[in-house]
Write a structure and sequence with these properties.
- Two copies of one chain form a homodimer.
- Chain A is mostly helical and about 450 residues long.
- Chain A has three domains: about 10-130, MgtE N-terminal domain-like (MgtE N-terminal fold, Alpha Horseshoe); about 145-245, CBS-domain (Roll); about 280-459, SLC41 divalent cation transporters, integral membrane domain (Tetracycline Repressor, domain 2), CATH 1.10.357.
- The first copy, chain A, is about 65% helix and about 5% strand.
- In chain A, the strands form two sheets. Chain A has a three-stranded mixed beta sheet. A three-stranded mixed beta sheet of chain A has the order 4-5-6.
- In chain A, strand 1, helix 12 and strand 2 (about 175) form a beta-alpha-beta unit.
- In chain A, helix 20 (about 350-380) runs antiparallel to helix 21.
- Chain A is elongated, with a radius of gyration of 31 Å.
- Chain A starts with 7 loop residues before the first helix and ends with a helix.
- At the A-B interface, helix 12, helix 13, strand 4, helix 15 and helix 16 of A face helix 12, helix 13, strand 4, helix 15 and helix 16 of B.
Chain lengths: ~450, ~450
């Protein structure tokens, strides 16, 4: 089976089958993987979703629910089901997925859903609900395979087979002592190769990576990525084994974090759901725009200061927008590279210093290159070499400002513990706007007005 | 062991140890994980790196090499080593990592390195070098565990243990026929649980996901993320098993793709290395800035058209920069949300339509909200309600332009097969700049100049 996305034919087939009887619908659904059905759900009404979940075998239904995006509201779908079917599906879910879905419900629904569950399952989910969603504890799953360090090969193998019964596949076997204190990991390869008389204590690997339950999810993702792990054990302050985080959960975290980087750097609040409605979008973006309005007035006040220059040389009003706009774009470039770099790797003092120097140089060179172009346009089109000089100086100056602020502001924010992506283009362009208006108007008032006055005197 | 990053103490310890003899250095190095040593390498000179690689046991040295970032040039480090040590290290590497490193060398070095290797290893690496780096074939590893479908439980287990000897850990067991045609996957759990007389053919799972060698790496990442896989098998056109891709390689791909999104949307070429030098940065960014210079002249020509308006009302020269700047920021917001959304999920026609409608609404509301603020500032500060009306209309109009272009341009580009991130803020802000200058100047020339003339006539 190789299938990348649901196309219109698939949707049409399922929609047609939805008009027929359950048996026909069931046979059509059998051709789709659970994650494909979850994709189809994005385009089906709630009623159709419920009918499909009711028809599917419990294990597939539960996989579909776990594959649904948070914004499609899998919890609402569960609430609509018959309580018995619902409990069966939830008991089939991984605990971490069940916890995420149930946490999204309102308190009354949460209570109802948990009461219907098997006591042990309800207790496990209640325990997981205590950890904030964006920590290791919130990401972890309490379904795992663990063996006591005192077991021999045969008992360990039996235990592993017994425990893995309820799991799709295990990525790691954890070794604990009688108090559930994590002692290490056991490789299935080592266990299979070992002689019959070997004990877990002979085979355990005690050099392993673990995390505490309160660690931020971003740090967990960094660790898993750095050490190329497929799963990582989670412990409490006393090294008791609480659960494990698998790499598939981390992939979701990494996508979330990258999305946040892109949104924040563009002046969108990190809380905005990509597929949210216009009300959420207004709530997330309007505050940034109002901040920008304030900074825009600041930049415009620079222009007001040169009202008489603008009146005498309206051409500068046009050209200053070019200088400011170019500065804004160059600053956005420097900002994007620096923010992404900080996000993937912490920089040493020396690397931070080198980054600022590099962006200064890039600003100087790109500024001079574009400055030469505007110089020649002024020379040949406006036939005014002095205007060309003013624009050359302003362009070079503003692109240096762009490079310096685009690199140094996120670096400084990171040092003082603020998320560097907050140094969004909205903040940085305040600097390039102010300098972009000030430089041509100031150079213009010095070099052009004096020269024009000189010309006037000659008449 | 729990360690998140290398701090200055670690660096100091290793630097001190580097001044001592090999035995002392070796004992200090023993306390670090290979990926930590790779991090330390970022701050150590080439000479020190070579000495450390020579001291480390081959398996650790090879892990350090594979953990080094491409930009740290692990190939150069290998070239500096004694040929025998170098071949030992390369033979210890996964084939895909060895291929990536050797591909970076110049042709002569490649030839020398490959000739020193064991013939079989050299042949495998040469075969992998034929696949482009950004396809499934370029990502895959030929180290894997596979069993013939005709084997019985005992032989299969023996085979798995034998093959996994050279691997750190296997994520999946692939089942092939006598012609190496992929038949399915085998779960170790199913094999362990099976009765002694069971055959692989009874246990094989034939409902599995695979990819062809020429599939783009971005599609491979989507599949692994969608189906929550830890590894995926790679086949040729005849379903022959070529290799497998593991999730840790995909994590790197996902980080790369997110970085590209952020850079492109900010007008930085995707080829720019985050830690590249100033020359690369100029090469990557200058072309975009020159394009922007052209579009900025276009926008400025709008202003030149209203020279007389600007001369009579220089205040508009200041205020138009506010309208244009606000439009640019609102467009960047809409663009970031839309590009990221397209990047994570394809949108249906209906979703695309809804996105444009949503961004129109957001533009209208955010535009009106900011328009009211500028209206009151004009009313109380400039005591000119007509100026306030001009600015209100221009702000609302430009933020609608921002929403419409920020959402629709990337969607249209995606439809015609162009990467939507190329609709960078640099392109989109051309529209908001033109509209941002045109709207206040045009409304101003109609509503303000006529009114002023009217006042003059009354005198």
């Amino acid at each position: 089976m190789q299938s990348f996305e649901i196309d219109k034919t698939d949707l049409l087939r399922v929609e047609t089958a939805l008009q027929g009887n359950d048996a026909d619908l069931e046979s059509v659904l059998q051709e789709y993987h659970a994650s494909e059905i979850a994709l189809l759900f994005e385009r089906l009404p709630q009623e159709a979703r419920e009918r499909i979940i009711n028809i599917l075998p419990t294990d597939i239904a539960s996989e579909v629910i776990s594959e649904m995006h948070e914004e499609q509201d899998p919890g609402e779908l569960l609430i609509g089901l018959d309580p018995e079917k619902r409990s069966e599906i939830i008991e089939e879910l991984d605990y971490d997925d069940a916890t995420d879905i149930i946490s999204q419900l309102d308190e009354e629904d949460q209570k109802e859903v948990l009461e219907d569950l098997d006591q042990e399952d309800a207790a496990s989910i209640r325990a997981l609900m205590l950890y904030p969603e964006d920590t290791a504890g919130g990401l972890m799953n309490s379904d795992l395979v663990k063996v006591n360090i005192r077991l021999d090969k045969k008992d360990a193998l039996d235990e592993i087979i017994r425990q893995s019964e309820e799991m799709e596949e295990f990525n790691a076997i954890y070794v604990v002592d009688d108090d559930n204190t994590l002692q290490g990991v056991l490789s299935i390869k080592a266990l299979l190769k070992a002689k019959a008389e070997a004990h877990v204590s002979d085979l355990v690997n005690t050099d392993f990576v673990f995390v505490k339950a309160d660690l931020d999810q971003e740090d967990v993702a960094d660790l898993i990525s750095q050490y190329n792990l497929t799963a990582i054990p989670v412990v409490d302050g006393q090294m008791k084994l609480l659960g494990r985080i698998t790499v598939d959960d981390i992939i979701d975290v990494m996508e979330e974090e990258s999305t946040e980087d892109i949104l924040k750097i563009s002046g969108v609040s990190e809380d905005e759901e990509l597929s949210g409605n216009w009300k959420d979008a207004v709530k997330s973006r309007l505050p940034w725009l109002v901040i920008n309005l304030g900074t825009a007035y600041l930049a415009a006040s620079v222009i007001r200061h040169f009202d008489s220059t603008v009146q005498e040389l309206p051409i500068l009003a046009a050209y200053m927008t070019i200088i400011a706009g170019m500065g804004g774009n160059a600053a956005t470039q420097a900002l994007a590279v620096t923010v992404r770099r900080i996000s993937l790797n912490d920089l040493t003092d020396k690397q931070a210093y080198n980054t600022v120097i590099k962006e200064f140089l890039v600003g100087l060179i790109n500024g001079a290159a574009n400055g030469i172009i505007v110089f020649f346009i002024a020379l040949f089109y406006d036939t005014d070499p002095m205007l060309g000089l003013v624009l050359f100086l302003a362009m070079t100056g503003n692109l240096i400002v762009a490079g310096l602020t685009g690199a140094s502001i996120p670096l400084v924010l990171k040092r003082v513990g603020i998320d560097p992506a907050v140094a969004s283009s909205i903040i940085i362009t305040t600097f390039t706007d102010c300098a972009g208006f000030l430089l041509p108007l100031w150079f213009g008032s010095k070099l052009l007005l004096d020269a024009h006055h000189h010309v006037l005197h000659l008449h």
